Amino acid sequence: MAERRKSMHGEWSSRWVFIMAATGSAVGLGNIWKFPYITGENGGGAFVLLYLLCIAIIGIPIMMAEILIGRRGRQSPINTMATLAKEASHSPHWKFLGWSGVVAGFLILSYYSVIAGWALSYVFRSAGGSFDGASADEVGAIFDGLLASPESLLAWHTIFIVMTMMVVARGVRHGLEKAIRFLMPTLFMLLLILVGYALNTGAFSQGLEFLFSPDFSKLSQDSVLVAMGHAFFTLSLGMGAIMIYGSYVPHKASITGTTFYIAGADTMVALVAGMAIFPIVFANGLEPGAGPGLIFVTLPIAFGQMPGGLFFGTLFFVLIVFAAWSSAISLIEPAITWLVENKGMKRATASIGAGIVTWFVGVGTVLSFNLWSGYKLFDKTFFDLLDYLTANIMLPLGGLMIAVFAGWIMTKQATQEELHMHDHFGYRMWRFLVRYVTPLGVTVVFLNAIGVI
Q: Do the domain assignments include residue 3?
């Protein structure tokens, strides 16, 4: 067995803290902002089944692979890939897979922070009664006014970046772990309160039917791409976050059991979010396929009309902010660990530097909604390009190469040691999926996305 490495950044205090941290990374805007509206756009229950299939045969095997690679290397994703490639007597160029994850996480956070800023803005707007009794046109005008104001977007974007850097600057135990111990239980509690409210809307059964009654005629080839891309996005795969969190996992912790807990919790949150949102949508005669505006335009109309809407609306946007915050701290962590390891920076200095660069890139997303909205490349704004590049290209390609590295480059002995598995059915199933099924599935969907097939 190879000598066990130790992370210079510390370890999680327990397996359960890692489960909360990785679930916090996975549970974010993807679950509460994105999953409901893409489900609405793709026909409801049939898309949910497709998404669950992608989680099972692609998401879980790759997450196991990414965690075991992270724990084996105990460094930033870039240095981990270089170290493990050398250990397996393969090309040091595998470090570029680590670079891809770090860059993807950095790019995602740059626009993720802007959208999280919308939610921050809405917490105060909702609490201040801006949506109370507002018509659809009035709520639409509020959202349009927010997007049209670069000054407002920059302010909220800045606040969210500062919130994120304040956590990561404090390190694994004192920053990430303390934040996660507070954020995750609070997030689950808020979500359950909202589901309790949805039970009393009179349209709860209609929301459940929409979520869980499949209509396969609504699915298209694009639905497959969206489902797979969202599986990567929501599980934080291919962006270095799970790999770096894996590097902090105690050696005795079971990667297999932990992965199932994380994937299960993440999927549960997405479905419960749908159970909270769609009854409110149907009870108010609104459109479930309203796109990204489902959260920021459609639901505020409902909150403005319902009894207790000011309280529950504010609660809902606080929930979104907490979900975004727990994910954001994981997106920037790989870049910070590399700066500490390779540039000799103190963690606080690395956090400030990474935060400033992320903020500057995020300015492009801010301006894409107003001053730069007319400037497009391949018919996409700056924000659309970043979203498409990361979710549909960088994350699937990163996940594909992680599967290849774990399945074909690392030795069987090394993966068995990290997974704490012998050569029995469970290990053989994982190895078969990660070597053949998962890479084939990702490749076919990716080639379809870029128009090759």
A: no
